[in-house]
UniProtKB/TrEMBL annotation:
Gene name in the database record: pgl
InterPro entries reported in the protein's UniProt record: 6-phosphogluconolactonase_DevB (IPR005900), 6PGL (IPR039104), Glc/Gal-6P_isomerase (IPR006148), NagB/RpiA_transferase-like (IPR037171)
Name of the protein in its database record: 6-phosphogluconolactonase
Biological function: Hydrolysis of 6-phosphogluconolactone to 6-phosphogluconate.
Residues of the Glucosamine/galactosamine-6-phosphate isomerase domain: 28-257
UniProtKB keywords: Hydrolase
GO biological process, one term: carbohydrate metabolic process
Lineage: Bacteria, Bacillati, Actinomycetota, Actinomycetes, Geodermatophilales
Amino acid sequence: MTLPPGDRIAARLAERTDGPVPDVVVEPDAEQLARAAAAALVARLTAAQAVHGTASVVLTGGGVGTAVLRHVAGLAEEPAPGQDLDWTAVDVWWGDERFVPADDDERNEKGAREALLDRVGVPAERVHAMPAADAGFATPEDAAEWYAGQLAAAAEDGPLPRFDVLLLGMGPEGHVASVFPRSPAASDERPVVAVRDCPKPPPTRVSLGFPAITSAEEVWLLVSGEGKAEAVAAALGGADPLDLPAAGARGRRATRWLLDAAAASGLPGAED
């Protein structure tokens, strides 16, 4: 029997490490990746609601991340049997945000609202956006501190609420959220951090730190394109998270790498 590409890769990775091996899913291209991730996300959040009565998701921006949200909106219009997700009982958080005015097209929140949130009726009190630069916060540090307070206020026990699924993109140098290689955020132990002098514009941001990212029940990394294949292979090969932050993005119960064939091309077993 021929194994799917992701299973072949996971099996080869397991031969090279003594630690837990993440789930690896490989789709032919970015469009099919976005469709598959959307269907899986709806199924996972529906299952969380069945257990807890509510579900929570941490969103990411970027091309694939936004495409996933558009497909999720489409599934909400025509839900599959047994996957009629109640969007009035979904809490929405963000992994990072650009510290720019609220109407700036660079805002991840703006893209998420247009792609999904304005189409599915998530109540305003369940949409937990990171502050914009014109929201009354003098500095990104103030905004980060406020967002950490919002997380703590929503938590049942401890400083962080339950995140059923935390979505992340990844840059070609291995950054996740706005945690860049060898940046102060990569070693910061606070759940939310301000990011200045970011190597990718815009330079000022607010981001979840590793304590918040790794608190999630499941972390899903959505990655497409050959230009990211080297970083994908390094992250799954055990790179130091300080050098390649994606390597440190792990969920409490599961870590899933959702890749297109180009992004997976550098992994062992990809060409078998």
